[in-house]
Amino acid sequence: MYSFGKTPTNLNRGELLSYKLRRLCEKVQGIQAAVLVNSDGLLMASHPLPTNEIDDPTGGEAVAAMASVTKTLADRTLDRLQQGSARRVILEGEHGTIAVLPAGREASLAVILTADAKIGLATLAAAQVAQDVTKIIDA
Q1: Pairwise CA distance, residues 21 & 129, whole Å
Q2: I need a surface site. Which of 14, 88, 98, 103 has the fewest CB within 10 A?
Q3: How would you classify residue 104: left for phi > 0, otherwise alpha for psi between -120 and 50, otherwise beta?
Q4: Residue 101 and residue 129 in contact, taking contact as beta carbons nearer than 8 Å
Q5: What whole-number distance in Å separates Cα of residue 5 and Cα of residue 23?
Q6: Which H or E element spans position 4?
Q7: What is the DSSP string of 78-96?
Q8: pLDDT above 60: residue 51
Q9: Tens digits of per-residue pLDDT, 79-125?
Q10: Please, what is the Cα angle at 20 between 121 and 119, to 5 degrees?
């Protein structure tokens, strides 16, 4: 298990979610960005902070929407094939990887990984943060 250090106690819920994502990106080699998205595809938190440019395909809002669609399609496919709910969805490309993991009842955590990232270690750390985030948003 990764150690992300002691969590500050003086943060509100939104700041705490952003803090968790920032620490994930700082501590795990190969994670470029992390986005927390609700089931409607709306951005809840991200690191690095999203750009204001609507056409930026790597901006927080765009990644949140794509992660939500990816998770929904994976869940539908697995349900149709009677395989249960998605534990994680990994899209591996030439220039990097995107992993989407459930984070509570109505949210998902998406991480963007570099091409040389150790996918297993990165998704393990992301799963740990997804559990932490679940405790925050489902409380």
Answers
A1: 8
A2: 14
A3: left
A4: no
A5: 9
A6: none
A7: HHHTT--S-S-EEEE-SSE
A8: no
A9: 999 999 889 999 999 999 999 999 998 999 999 999 999 999 999 99
A10: 15
* DSSP 8-state assignment for residue 72: H
pTM higher than 0.85: yes
Looking at the chain, the whole-number percentage of residues with pLDDT higher than 90 is 62
Query: 110 and 100 in contact (C-beta within 8 Å)?
Result: yes
Give the distance from CA 118 to its chain's centroid.
16
Between CA 101 and CA 109 the distance in angstroms is: 5
Strand order in the sheet with 89-92: 43-47, 31-38, 107-114, 96-102, 89-92
> Residue for token digits 């901006």?
59
**Antiparallel, parallel or unpaired: β 89-92 and 96-102:** antiparallel
Are residues 61 and 43 in contact, defined by beta-carbon separation less than 8 angstroms?
A: yes
Structure tokens at 42: 């709306």
Domains assigned to the chain: 13-137 (3.30.450.30)
By C-alpha distance, which of 29, 28, 34 is closest to 50?
34
* List of E strands, the chain: 31-38, 43-47, 89-92, 96-102, 107-114
